[in-house]
Amino acid sequence: MKETRTIKAYVYKGFERFWHWMQSFLILFLALTGFEIHGSYGLMGFESAVDLHNKAAWAFLVLIVFAIFWHLTTGEWKQYLPTTQNLRAQAEFYIFGIFRNAPHPTKKTLISKLNPLQRLVYLGLKILVIPVMVISGFFYMFYRYPQASTIRSANIQNLETIALLHTLGAFLLIAFVIVHLYLITTGHTITSNLKAMITGWEELEVDADAENQKSQKHEEVKDEIK
Amino acid sequence: MGNLKTILTFALVVLLPLVIITIALREDKTENRVLLNLQKEYPVHHQSGTDHAAMEILQQDFDNPHEITAACLSCHTERGKEVMQSAHWNWEREAYIPGRGVTYLGKKNLINNFCTGIFSNEASCNRCHIGYGWKDKTFDFANQFNIDCLVCHDNSGTYEKARGQAGYPVMGEDGPDFKPILASVGRPKRENCGSCHFHGGGGNNVKHGDLEMALLTAGRDVDVHMGVDGMNMACVDCHSATNHKMKGRYYGTSSENTQRAECTDCHTAMPHTNNKLNEHTIKVACQTCHIPVYAKVNSTKMSWDWSTATRLRDGKPYVDLDSLGNELYTSIKGSFGWHRMVTPEYTWFNGTADHHLLTDKVDESNLPLKINTLNGSYSDPDSKIHPMKVHRGRQPYDTELHNLIQAKLWDREANMGALWLDLNWERALEEGMEYAGLPYSGNYDFIQTEMLLPVNHMVSPANEALSCADCHTREGGRLQHLNDFYMPGRDYNATLDTLGKYLIILSIIGVLVHGAVRFVAARRNA
């Protein structure tokens, strides 16, 4: 085993954390109001649910626009590039290694914060689930019934396909949230991931070999923050 | 420094959602300009430009109503021709019906499932014709002096057509005092229209359910337009007329999507300040939400079973009443069902209709027979969801020739074959069909029929309109039987929902089991 050393690094920037927590709040709020619209339960009444769902949807959209801008300008979008390297090892870690106190197969670094499984899942959310939700949500909002005489935003014959896609996306997101909430406890310690997403700081393990080079970069970052 | 930033970020994360929620919950209080303008415009009531009490020609002592008409037409020279073009006069309209071609249908020749039809019963039914003397087929529709101007234009409230007199008032010494009537003439009031339209089907509120005597005195809670404590509007404020051609249609007799009186004529197609509601108007008629119940004051007839007619009690015809005084049974007409505060049924409707004619074949395998068919569906861009009164009947039909039968119901005297006097079905059916000039095999039975009457009146105040969840609900919503489209809150895909539920349950079980094993393993390793 290689010699390792832990260093404290500023992993999640201010906007990144704000985006993350806003997004989590909005997803939960959209799920709460959305499933009321779906008819799953009666909490605030259909009318309020629709109203709040629509407003939250717009808020989410604004957040998405800012998030896309941030990812593009900071280059952070590269974090989500999928890789097969360590993919199998990471899956095996969750199935076996984690119970034997085995080390994490993927080392978190500033240029690669996500393990290969996370990369895949988050990329799936970003390019599949969220776009499907946004697009079907837009159709839902601006759908104006078949060939309406004066308002013709979208001449769609039936809401069903749109509604079912939107429902499917909602189920996937809920399942994601459940698993995600659990997996944040699988970090270095039970709360280290949560703390990192709140404060931005996390203790990272670095190979002693690469330490010189990396720590230098960490110091730069620290300086920047100061 | 980093600490301050953390606090700031966290404040943002906690506060921003709260700010968003507050903004979201803040109600938009936009005033409804359209409504405000209408409320300014409509309390101004029409004033006549002429004092008819001062007209020399109206000072005569009239005893023949035709002469009154002649007096009217001597000044209003062109109005007679106009009236004779109207459906009020002809009791039929030219209409194109797909599959039938150009038709001339109306009360003159259609059959319904109330008193069924006018053939052979004209002298009684046609009390409500705007003419004098339509007692049989010989009536002269081309004679403008047969027009009864007074039934619509009397503003004294004392003019009345007599029972069984084919549209004439009581004649002779007991007749009305025409002087004050003629002095009063003017624009039709609710009482004028109501004298016939409130009594369709043979009694107050029998036929329509949303048109009845109570509208003369009721408040806004019953009808927001006509309420005497509100706008106090007259029928003709909405059912305006150009050259005696009234706007508005009744689809028990009408077939085409023209000349309708629409809410949007005044309220515009975007009447709400809330755009979600405005969007609904593309597929939902105003009446659907704004008339949550009809027959708000007196009961309306919901069913009519002719098959039980002609029964005797102690050898005599009889009448059974319910606690509200509604007839539950009469020997001359059969059994009835009555309801008050009725929730409408709903159907797609595009303004066109077809009718079951006396000459159409009955399909016994497809019952109840539809007396009128209102066209429409979700996929039809012209269709909207409309509230309906559905009147369910059982009425005579020919079991051999397979068509509905028009019975002779009324006559001046007994033993002329009129059901209401002789209580003899065989004879009444024979006489009725003979008069109509249609074949009758002599074999009859009773068949279930259904008639759709769109509900348009008794509009409730806005705060009593339906709310979202009245339709957008899983079970028991107002539109639960209208299933040709996907409606949020009501509809879902059972497979998708089941899979989704399992996905969530499995996720929870998965993380719990994984967590538990981790916990145990961690303790063992320690």
Short description:
The complex is a heterodimer of chains A (226) and B (526). Chain A has 226 residues and is mainly alpha-helical. Chain A contains seven helices and two strands.
Q: Fraction of residues of chain A in helices?
A: 55-70%
Percent strand of chain A equals 5-15%
Overall mean pLDDT of chain A stands at: 85
How many structural domains does the protein architecture of chain B include? 2
The tally of strands of chain A reads 2
The profile of the biggest β sheet of chain A is: 2 strands, antiparallel
Shape of chain A: elongated
Question: Can you characterise this structure?
Answer:
The complex is a heterodimer of chains A (226) and B (526). Chain A has 226 residues and is mainly α. Chain A has a single domain, classed as Fumarate Reductase Cytochrome B subunit (Up-down Bundle). Helices cover 62% and strands 6% of the residues of chain A. Chain A is built from seven helices and two strands, in the order E-H-H-H-H-H-H-E-H. Chain A has helices spanning 14-37, 46-74, 87-95, 116-142, 160-183, 192-199, 208-225, and strands at residues 4-10, 201-207. Chain A has a two-stranded antiparallel sheet. In chain A, helix 1 (14-37) runs antiparallel to helix 2 (46-74), helix 1 packs across helix 5 and helix 4 (116-142) packs antiparallel against helix 5. The model of chain A has no long low-confidence stretch (mean pLDDT 85). Chain B has 16 helices and 14 strands. Chain B folds into two domains: 52-298 and 340-405 and 440-470, no CATH class; 496-526. Chain B is 27% helix and 14% strand. In chain B, the strands form four sheets. In chain B, strands 5, 6, 7, 8, 9, 11, 13 and 14 form an eight-stranded mixed β-sheet that branches. Chain B has a two-stranded antiparallel ribbon with strand order 1-2. In chain B, strands 3-4 form a two-stranded antiparallel sheet. With 526 residues, chain B is α+β, with helices and mostly antiparallel strands. At the A-B interface, helix 1, helix 2 and helix 5 of A face helix 1 and helix 16 of B.
